[in-house]
Amino acid sequence: MGRNRVTALRSPASDPSLRLAEPGRALVRWLSVRALDTEAGERLLPAVPPHCAVTVADLAQPYAEEWERFARELSCPQEQEDAQRAG
Predict the structure, then answer these.
(1) Contacts of residue 19, Cβ cutoff 8 Å, sequence gap at least 6
(2) pLDDT band for position 36 (50/70/90)?
(3) Mean pLDDT across the stretch 41-65?
């Protein structure tokens, strides 16, 4: 699954609207690091001892919620524009 994320990053990384602007390059770098982080996380999952599983899950949950919010905002661009105008 992590490998698919890395492959999927090729498209935005080569998109001129992202590649030619610093905010776009920053976004691609940020996503690249996260793609590698999830791959590392998948490899580290077996290292979590059963007695630490709940604690580690509690630590991971806010990250999952933030990614969900990020994806939701990207999936609904009109709502995002409306929120920016209202804010």
Answers:
(1) 13, 25, 28
(2) low
(3) 92
